[in-house]
Amino acid sequence: MDFLTHALVGALLGELSPERIKNRQAKGALAAISPDIANLVAYPYLGIKSGNIIPYAYPRDFYANPWIVDHWTWVPWEITHSFLFWGLIVMPLLLYFKKPLLFGVAYASHLLLDMPSHSGIWSTVPFYPFEYRFDGWFDAWAWGAQEIFISATTVFLLWRFAAALKLSGPDLLAWPLEAES
Ligand SMILES: [Zn+2]
Fold first, then answer.
1. Could you tell me the pLDDT band of residue 180, with boundaries at 50, 70 and 90?
2. For the chain, what are the domain ranges?
3. Distance 37 CA to ligand 1 centre (A)
4. Cα–ligand 1 centroid distance for 124 (angstroms)
């Protein structure tokens, strides 16, 4: 998915979390975009390689340079988008530091949403380092402003709907080990 949709899905998940988690919407948004921190490797690298003024690669640069998926700069993205990374690194760390499960759920929402929205050679490798590619149905990562706007607005409205209905609280999505106030 695009960056904005991920963030808003995280905010929605935060909204649904217990109210006692401080800034739960912002925390959800942050956790939901965090797997794409790995983009800070391949995007600037390919941006510079493509001769862009801003060291950032656009979808057209990726389409013009399909070799990038075999380059080492692509690997961090495959790692952070792996359910094995999530299950063996992210979740144990959250448990150890007694952080709200909201972080883990929002992180997982990113991985789930990226599976259908990356196709062909751009597919996710959900169990990296095991080379199984999940071929998605479309390429939201290459979306233009209009598609991002439609997608983000839809999720934004869902979020505000949940907020208006006050769907939050300990009854809904109550994380049993939630320790943070
Ligand atoms: Zn992603």
1. low
2. 3-37+79-164
3. 9
4. 9
What's the 109 CA to ligand 1 centre distance in angstroms? 10
The angle at the Cα of 120, spanning 41 to 91, to the nearest 5 degrees, equals 55
Query: Which secondary structure element, helix H or strand E, spans residue 23, and what is its range?
Result: none
How far apart CA 89 and CA 74 sit, in angstroms, is 19
- Cα(12) to centroid(ligand 1), Å: 18
E strand intervals along 44-105: none
Q: What is the pTM of this model?
A: 0.91
64-91 b/e with 16+ CB inside 10 Å = b?
Answer: eeeebbeeebbbbbbbbbbbebbeeebb
Q: How far is the CA of 1 from the centre of ligand 1 (A)?
A: 7
Find the 80 Cα to ligand 1 centroid distance in Å.
8
85 CA to centre of ligand 1 in angstroms: 14
Kindly indicate the confidence band of residue 50, based on its pLDDT and cuts at 50, 70 and 90: very high
